[in-house]
Amino acid sequence: MVKQQSKSSSINKTISQDQIYVADCGHRFSIPVIQKHVINGKNTLCPVRGCGNEVGFITGDESGIDVYHVGNRHKNPNNTIGGWVSITSRAVKTATIGRNAQVFENASVLERANIQGYTQVYGDARVYGEASTYGQAEISGNSRVYGKADIKGKAQIYENAKVYGEAQIYGDAQIFGEAQIYEKAQVFVKTKVFGKAKIYGKSLVGGDNIIVHDNAQIYDRSQVYGDVKIYDNAKIYDDAKIFDNAEIFGFVRVFGNASVSGFAYVYGNAKVFDNAKVFDNANVKRNSIIYEDANVFGDATVGGNARIFGHARVYSDAIIDGDSRVYGHAQVYDRSYITGQSKIYGDAHAYGDMTMINDNLSTDNPQTRQAQRRTYLQRLRIQEQELQQQQQQFMGERTEKTEQQQARRRQQFRRSGGKMKAGLQGKGQQYRQSILAKQKQKWDDVPEQIRDVYTLDLFEDPVVANDGAIYNKQTVRKMIGKVGVRGSIITSIKKQGQLTQDQSKRLGKIIDGVQQFKKQHQKTPDDLGRHKRISKKTQQQGGGGRKRKHQNQSK
Q1: What is the torsion angle, in degrees rounded to the nearest 10, for the CA atoms of residue 149, residue 151, residue 157 and residue 163?
Q2: pLDDT tens digits, residue range 43-68?
Q3: Is 457 inside any structural domain?
Q4: CATH code, 472
Q5: CB 1 within 8 A of CB 18
Q6: pLDDT tens across 191-219, in order?
Q7: Which range of residues forms the domain containing residue 466?
Q8: In terms of pTM, does the model score above 0.85?
């Protein structure tokens, strides 16, 4: 018998001639055979013909044999001869070790654990309870597998990971770090779970490139598959589904029957729940909440404290931000930018280059989307007119005269011809304004294509700003340093040589459209010239009539 000192100074084991040496290549030899192939304490090739691998670590002392490679076959509870257990490891009599399984280094197989297939248990790992392993599973490091856990395939459990309860790990899954898989959770295919991540309940997590780490948690009946990444403090629970190439991180919560898929990103403190769906290339971030039956997809972005709910749809390149609300059957799409405390609800549609800041858009029974757009533009025009009226009042312009003031003035007109003349001129001015108002009313039907997207006025001097949108030149000058309709800051006007082919074509169409519109609608009414003649004639008749009446009264 030869006394052998192991790699660990605390281990002192005795090697007997009837024990077995297991080489790194897996071939087994008796101690006398392996000693013949060790020359001067140096490693040598495996004596099996055609193998060519080294027999294993050699300590370099008298025997030249590593105790971690020396052991005995385990005797199973049913009296069958089981797999190889090194003299440095521990396998109790109640445990079952399959014929091709190996337990070595400082590993322990305890209680009624069942190690089958080509499983390797090594390092300081422990398998106990009624846990079972199959296939080519590896349990190593300081990991723990217990309860009724089931490890199979080529699954790897290592470092300080724990798998217990009725959890199942299979395929090429890897559980490491301080990760925990328990209850009835299943982790499979090539999933990697590490850090302090937890997967439990009846959740299913499996895919070719799934990564779950940090403090992420997946539980209840949730499902994660595809190439998903979930990390930070994100939580997926209830019946939620995360799949494809979605990425969930931050303090996100996805629950209920919600789903996140495609290449979608959900991060920050966002929440997605109920039957909500986020997919394609959508971004949901910050404190936004998507719930009920709402959908966010395409290249849409929802951020700030926005809320999308009901049967609402947000898609294309739309941006919802601030404290905005989109609900009902409303839809926001194209390059729309909704922010502030705006609300879009009912059956409303926001699209094109629409920008809404602290406004509402609602239509109960819309006939067409164009009608909805016109309704919104008209409301903006009314608001603009009201603002202009307030400014005029503030600057000291006269308000409408009361009936009493008008009566007092009529008396003054009777007494004074000069004031009568002034009064008649005032009536002529009112008449001119009524004619101009009729002409202006025609301009309210200006097509959207030839309106300034910011002021909603007819284009007079259209130019292309640095954000790619087309405005009146005067509008751009006022908006320097401010956010444009496309969400970027306006800094300059593009010169003719800086325009793209598409921008030049759009600008040309607008200029042609404005000219054509002016030809059809901008007609100088003859009444604007005729009202002067009418005023003079009325003045002469009215003045003469009053003069004769005054003469008769004096007689």
Answers
A1: -10
A2: 566 666 676 666 554 443 444 445 55
A3: yes
A4: 3.30.40
A5: no
A6: 999 999 999 999 999 999 999 999 999 99
A7: 445-516
A8: no
